[in-house]
## 1
Amino acid sequence: MRIAMIGSGYVGLVSGACFAQFGHDVVCVDKEAAKIARLRQGEMPIYEPGLDKLVADNVRAGRLSFGTDLAAAVGDVDTVFIAVGTPTRRGDGHADLTYVYAAAAEIAEAIRGYTVVVTKSTVPVGTGREVARIIRETQPGAAFDVCSNPEFLREGAAIEDFMKPDRVVIGVESERAREVMSAIYRPLNLIQTPMVFTNIETAEVTKYAGNAFLATKITFINEIADLCEKVGADVHDVARGIGLDGRIGRKFLHPGPGFGGSCFPKDTLALAYTAREANAPQTIVEQVIEVNNARKRRMARKVIDFCGGSVAGLTVGVLGLTFKPNTDDMRDAPSLDIVPALQTAGARIVAFDPEGMEEAARMLPGMTFARTAYEAATDADVLVVITEWHEFRGLDPRRIRQLMRQPRIVDLRNIFNPEEMRGLGFAYEGVGRPAPRT
Ligand code: NAD
């Protein structure tokens, strides 16, 4: 199949490269000329494990190319995927569909011959119909179908998720479009991936329902962690104890500073907004949003309390800034709440993140960046773990202890063993784990 991917960000670039790996001819389009120029030179504009090799292999094989000319790309293909951003609209929490509709209008001008236009971006229910309306209005004679194919990949494991998904959801309303989508995903038949064919509205709701459920699961265990702290229970054992129940499942039961990232915060907000408009308020999701926002704000207080009520004049070493490990994505990361609050309280921040520092430098002014985790710990009065990068788990705590001015750790991801850390002389606090009995 010949595919045009409109938007070459985290989702568009990974999806485009994976479709090329499936054997399709793919052109990834982006309106950011600098991004396309870098891609043409073999440079990745984002950090995603394995992406550079996947892109290079498929460019070499002649199946993957990059361009800024949407019309030229769309005119030559069977299927166009829209993978542009859908951030939160300022003021009301709704998804901002400006980019989706602008892309739809451009696609509408450029369609030649039967084309399936697919929304891969996360879009509120009703968007597919509106995309169809825009195309019909712009080019009344166009032969096309619209389709919704939400993406479930996780940053940091995006290629694996795309190549071996738990399922593929496709909202489609004509047999012809269904055949095209089946042909695109045919390579997944080999690994017997479940394909959920449904109508467009259902596919659109499915994506939001999935993210809202996961955000709820995280928020649930975070509140249980708060209870554990108060009553001397260990949230990890609770999570294991409930997660082994097949009806609950073990994933997404890890406590932390609150969810962030490019999807959960904006998607929960957008779902709540759509649902209120449809007069079917999602009160659980609304509560999740509120609880999570309060939690992120409270994490700085946790650090301050741990330091005896003030961090004024203290040096706080920070490990991890991105919203999760294995990505350079800083969107809605908990660090964006925690670091400024500590700065306002008078702390000097020295931070290290393996991939996120370039982006963090733009979003978090006034911070010093360290070249290594050990450098961030050097002369620190307290060390705060915000993101659980794998490499932090292997740090030598003895060396950290020697480097720090005061051996104190607030581990917001529970990557260290509390007994071991306390045994080495650290004052240590994690999330949802019992304090030592005195
Ligand atoms: P992104 O910001 O990384 O990428 C979007 C890209 O689209 C940008 O490079 C932008 O320049 C480009 N663009 C915008 N308008 C364009 C146009 N008219 N023509 C060409 N290019 C255009 O965003 P992302 O993280 O890839 O997310 C894209 C969509 O996928 C969102 O709806 C998001 O919710 C959804 N999604 C994201 C993830 C994730 O983990 N990032 C996972 C699943 C779904």
## 2
Amino acid sequence: MSKKEIYQHIENNAVFKGLKVNSGIQQPEPVNHESVKRFLNKSRNLLPVNDYVTGILNGDITLLSKAVTLVESANAKHQQLAQDIITQCLPHSGKSIRVGITGVPGVGKSTFIEALGSYITRHHGKLAVLAIDPSSERTRGSILGDKTRMEELSVDKNAYIRPSPSAGSLGGVARKTRETIILCEAAGFDHIFIETVGVGQSETAVHSMTDFFLLLMLAGAGDELQGIKRGIMEMADTIAINKADGNNIEKAQLARIQYNNAIHLFPKKESGWDPIVLACSASQKTGISEIWDIIEKYKELTIQNGYFKIKRTQQATYWMHETIQEQLKRNFYNDHDIKLKIKDLENLVLEDKLSSFVAAGRLLEMYWKMK
Ligand code: GDP
């Protein structure tokens, strides 16, 4: 470590009160091997942008993971570095098929991702599996919180599994997931799965960053019971009735017919794609290759009719606006003066002395004046 780097040690920042890192005597390098040096490099020692970018473009998983950690960090310096890395990776991204996979906890998402994912890495290429639900919002069934549930994929060198960032608003997590997609694609992952628990708002976010949307359902459980809203079914490009095995096969076939009727009552899709309903068993690995064939057919059709590109462009503009909104909001709520004032106005609203609109107006006016 150079003297300059020691002087700029992160813990010398004023926020670490009582801590002072003195510049010491430069020690000789203990080992020369590149990978060992990298290992010894503590995570707080940031690398130059180019090191991350070159590593990612060479498919180096360690550097990819470090860059994703920067994307997830709330630290302004990390964020700046992350944005620089993303900008340089952007021209190398986009060459993948992005698949959103949703379904209520227990439907078999992790088992399914393991089955389809292993099929893909065996026959078609590399796969990154990301999640969008902030862990704090998760109920049981967080596939990625518990990697051991995907035994095969978690040791597959062609697969990269990244758990969802542990905290933050859905909007924030969604943006980070979208940025992570870019990094994974630049690292050569040509298949991206984004998993979400299909009970909240998150599937809209997943839909806004994927090419193909797959909904997993169960036979014999009413839609009410599965908590799946009509809007989510409407978004689906394919519905797979999972657990079609053992005594459940007949029920699954019946459900397939019912859902097939239901899905065709929805308006025709802009993509020109006719949604498909089929039955599968993630644990028995039946219907899995068929689902892959469907995804490939979808890609072929939408590339041919131009929708694939249109959707990606629409998504890029959508994310531009989402990012603006998120950053404006963050900037407002993190403002020192606003923080001081907001409690007073909140109390006035609680005491019915001020309407919420007037209070919001006053705070916003104060904010604009300061800018
Ligand atoms: P997730 O919460 O949606 O990720 O669901 P999991 O993949 O953890 O699966 C929930 C339970 O259903 C586990 O006990 C699985 O072994 C079981 N399961 C998953 N897929 C199938 C399937 O195709 N058939 C059967 N019979 N069980 C399954």
